[in-house]
Amino acid sequence: MEKVGVIYWPKGGNVEIVARKIYERFDKANADIFDIQSIAVTDLVNYDCLIFGGSTVGAETWQEVTNNNKWYAFFSELDKVNFKDKEVALFGLGDQILYPNNFVDSLAFIKNEFVKRGAKVIGKWSTEGYTFTGSDAVEKDGFFCGLALDEDQQYNMTDERINKWLDQLKAEINAG
């Protein structure tokens, strides 16, 4: 089995809860979990597959260049690591009813940071079963670039979606 790292931000909310659910479904000998402040970017090379998760909290938060923006600080360190062909999977949380025009946009932002560094993004997810009007995370093939979850409107579907996505992801990891 491949060594998997589950990395998420922010702490203390739904993203952390979902990250822990994902982590719990792996053999602990082959998986670790960290928030982005608890792992050095240079330690990411120790993992065969990295699973990153975040929430959509507004474009200004993702693009804001300040010391308070933990994602920006994390991404600014990524050039220290060779991500060429590293397998990266993504999960994102959003609210498709309150923010239908930007549902799980964070997935696209995180994806782009890794793709421009040569990573191989795996774990696309179907848009079926969601109601939204726009998302940067939907690719040309009509799939999300990672697992989309809505803990506000469809919390009762989260466990089933995680299980199906991880089955799919494990097959992709083993095929790679």
Number of helices: 5
Global shape: globular
User: What proportion of the residues form beta strands (DSSP E)?
Assistant: 15-25%
Number of DSSP-assigned strands = 8
Backbone CA Rg: 15 Å
Terminal CA distance: 12 Å
The stretches of 5 or more residues where confidence is low (pLDDT under 50) are: none
The CATH topology annotation reads as Rossmann fold
Structural class: alpha/beta
The percent range for helix content is 25-40%
Outline of the structure:
This protein is an alpha/beta fold. It is built from 5 helices and 8 strands, in the order βαββααβαββββα. The protein is 30% helix and 19% strand.
What topology emerges from the helices and strands here?
Elements: E1 4-8, H1 14-24, E2 31-35, E3 49-55, H2 59-63, H3 70-76, E4 87-93, H4 105-115, E5 120-122, E6 125-126, E7 143-144, E8 147-149, H5 158-175
Parallel strand pairs: 1-2, 1-3, 3-4, 4-5, 4-8
Antiparallel strand pairs: 6-7
Question: Can you describe this structure?
Answer:
By secondary structure, the protein is of the alpha/beta class. It has a single domain (4-175), classed as 3-Layer(aba) Sandwich (Rossmann fold). The chain is built from five helices and eight strands, in the order E-H-E-E-H-H-E-H-E-E-E-E-H. The chain has helices at 14-24, 59-63, 70-76, 105-115, 158-175, and strands at 4-8, 31-35, 49-55, 87-93, 120-122, 125-126, 143-144, 147-149. The strands form two sheets. Strands 1, 2, 3, 4, 5 and 8 form a six-stranded parallel beta sheet that branches. Strands 6-7 form a two-stranded antiparallel ribbon. Helix 1 links the parallel strand 1 and strand 2. The chain starts with a strand and ends with a helix.
